[in-house]
Amino acid sequence: MIGPRAKESQTFIEQLNVSQRDRSELTELPEREVIRRAQLGDASAFERLYRLHSRRVYALCLRMLGNWTEAGDLTQEAFLGVFRKIQSYRGESAFSTWFHRVAVNLVLMRLRKKASQEISPGKTSKRNFDCGEPQEELGGHDLQLAGTIDRINLQHAMDQLAPFHRLVVELHDIQGYKHKEIAQIMAWSIGNSKAQLHRARRRLRGFLDETLRSE
User: Fold this and answer.
1) Rounded to an integer, what distance in angstroms lies between the CA atom of residue 27 and that of residue 177?
2) H runs (alpha helix) in the chain
3) How far is the C-alpha of 10 from the C-alpha of 130, rounded, in Å?
């Protein structure tokens, strides 16, 4: 027996199976017109929105969850949410901002669920904040290798940040959102967005300094 969520997911996938001609017709349209058509039930318009926004949403989910499969599942779940709620979009903020708020809410719910499933507080702390096994020190001065190690160290430092701090760094420093947009996504004030980013960067520098000293 197929449950209601599975049926909805199947409908969503079928809606995205549109012709190449339909896709090409939408390429030249402004996003507001694509959104209007999607709200009227145009499957090709909704697929266009998927192609425009899925990469950034997937990157956010992957950064927060650290698992490719989970990030893919949550990205599809976010689009299902948008598919259900797109009639409620009124253009009061950018569509990407509105959509990212849907994705952020799902990510935070997933993180809370993970934390509640941990056996003990100590185990939860380790899962959320430990940077993992220490990196083996490699000899030589290969610049490409050094860049790779720097990226690994940065990711480990990001993994140690609290979820809200990781989100604000991802949204502002990596995806390029302004504080006004982040405030809308996170339901914060602009001042709180700036303060959280300042704290996140300070902690990030601290974690990176600790990693460099240990090496």
Assistant:
1) 24
2) 4-16, 20-27, 31-39, 43-65, 68-85, 95-117, 121-129, 143-160, 163-169, 179-186, 190-214
3) 38
Together in a domain, 1 and 96: yes
In a domain, 130, yes or no: no
Question: What is the reported pTM?
Answer: 0.74
The pLDDT value recorded for residue 24 is 65
The 10s digit of each residue's pLDDT in 138-196 is 334 444 545 555 777 888 889 899 999 999 999 999 999 999 999 999 999 999 999 99
Are 94 and 49 spatial neighbours (Cβ–Cβ below 8 Å)? no
Residue 45 in any domain: the answer is yes
As a whole number of angstroms, the longest Cα–Cα distance in the chain is 60
The answer to whether residue 132 is domain-embedded is no
Separation of alpha carbons 205 and 124, rounded Å: 23
Q: Is residue 207 included in any domain, yes or no?
A: yes
What domain range is 86 assigned to? 1-118
190 & 84 share domain: no
Could you report the per-residue pLDDT of 99-115, keeping only the tens digit for each?
Answer: 999 999 999 999 999 88
pLDDT tens per residue across span 187-210: 999 999 999 999 999 999 999 888
* Domain count along the chain: 2
Region of 42 (left: φ > 0; alpha: ψ -120 to 50; beta: rest) is: beta
